[in-house]
Amino acid sequence: MITTLLLWIVLAASIHYVFLHYVKYGKVNQIPGPMALPLFGNVLSIMGTTHDIWMYIRKMSQEHFPIYSIWTLTYPFLNIVHPNDIETLIGNPKFTYKGLQYQFMLPWLGSGLLTSYGAMWQTRRKMLTPAFHFNVLQQFVEILIEQGEGFVQTLKNEKGPVVKDLWQLMSEHTLNIICETAMGVSLKDKEKEFQLKYRSAVSQMAQFPIYRVTKPWYGFDTTFNHSPAGWKHNKLLKILHGFTSKIINERKQYHKQTNYRYITGFDDKPYKMENDIEDGGRKKRLAMLDLLIAAHRNNQIDDVGIRDEVETFMFKGHDTTAMCFCYTLMLLAEHPEIQDRVRAEVKVVMEQNGGKWNISAVQQLSYLERCIKESLRLYPVVSAIEIHSIGRIRMISIRIGFYLKIPLDDILILTYLSALVQEIALGKSSLCWN
Ligand code: HEM
């Protein structure tokens, strides 16, 4: 009885395998990759920690450069590793559909720019782009400098030369910056504990997409929501939404108290300097959240839409930059001779500007800028993006003629933005700072 049952299972698994690999996704089979097991695909190789997954993906990228396929249970991912292919892909407006991992961020980021696509993405992008006009960014440099000085002071206050958790210190300041610039709300008078909880919730929440993709049984909301991981996810969600709601309500309250006079007609030209508000001697700038509140008054976005964008920008705006600066500082610590050159440049620019920082002084720090870019190359803080190819696409890789005309429907495409890619493709070392 048991033997018959087992035979049926083996037969069913084999038919399923043949159907997937030779009929439904037959074209993907022509693309190299690690051997996929029936039913499981490659999922057993990507079940470890985030670090294990990263190392596995790097190994596969090296072995199968510039393109390979990998299966999670019954679904293929196509991994694009060559920078030129990545460029072709992300430069094509056909590929604005977001991959599977982004779906797992929907409870958190909803229709925000990172997770939305198609018409919704275009509308929101058009709505928000003016908030990032150079004139607007220029006005915020004062806040950046203030936070930079605060960070330096915090470092000086640390006892001894070693900072236990640089990311904690860094992200405190980058969160302050995004709140004060894009949201117009200062965190100075907010409880530290509340901010700490928010930042910790962000870094934990950001792990879930990869967790759910690599454990496909958690891909279903029903199984996930009834698991310990799902309970944790929902708890974190409450913390995140609680924090952003507080920020939004405070700004809304401000505009209500000022009778909305600062955001009347604001949606047309938000980057005009006259939108600055004098507030107790210090200029308060109108920014992204104000644009959203103005759009809300014109019925162009609802409350949930505002929350989604605020969640997206708070997350993308503080976590990425904190991580990037941590890596840059780490590399500068490892390379004292480069650190000396950066210090010398900063010293010269400071002297030229009478010890004061402003936008043009910051723009003169060209060597430091190169160092930041190089650290992004070696340690890209967003190391992969995932695109959902909808409809027939022609294979993107021009280097590998064989795959040139493979039509792919409904495939997830992962692209890697890592230093390893450049090491293989451009001959630039992934180990050396240059
Ligand atoms: C070192 C700093 C940063 C890096 C390396 C970085 C990198 C990236 C990358 C690679 C994407 C594409 C992600 C994807 O499609 O999955 C992205 C998207 C995005 N980033 Fe950043 N980012 C940085 C800083 C910021 C900051 C400071 C903000 C906000 C002020 C921000 C807001 C966004 C938003 C809203 C999106 C989605 C855009 C869209 O799809 O239209 N990022 N970022």
From TrEMBL:
The residues that cross the membrane are: 36-57
Q: Which domain of life is it from?
A: Eukaryota
Query: Which SUPFAM superfamilies does the protein's record reference?
Result: Cytochrome P450
Entry's localization field: Endoplasmic reticulum membrane; Microsome membrane
Cofactor(s) the protein requires to work: heme
Instruction: Identify the keywords attached in UniProt to this record, alphabetized.
Output: Endoplasmic reticulum, Heme, Iron, Membrane, Metal-binding, Microsome, Monooxygenase, Oxidoreductase, Transmembrane, Transmembrane helix
- Topology with respect to the bilayer: Peripheral membrane protein
PANTHER family, sorted: CYTOCHROME P450 4C3-RELATED (PTHR24291:SF189), CYTOCHROME P450 FAMILY 4 (PTHR24291)
Q: Which family does it belong to?
A: Belongs to the cytochrome P450 family.
Q: What does this protein do?
A: May be involved in the metabolism of insect hormones and in the breakdown of synthetic insecticides.
Q: What is this protein called?
A: Cytochrome P450
UniProt lineage: Eukaryota, Metazoa, Ecdysozoa, Arthropoda, Hexapoda
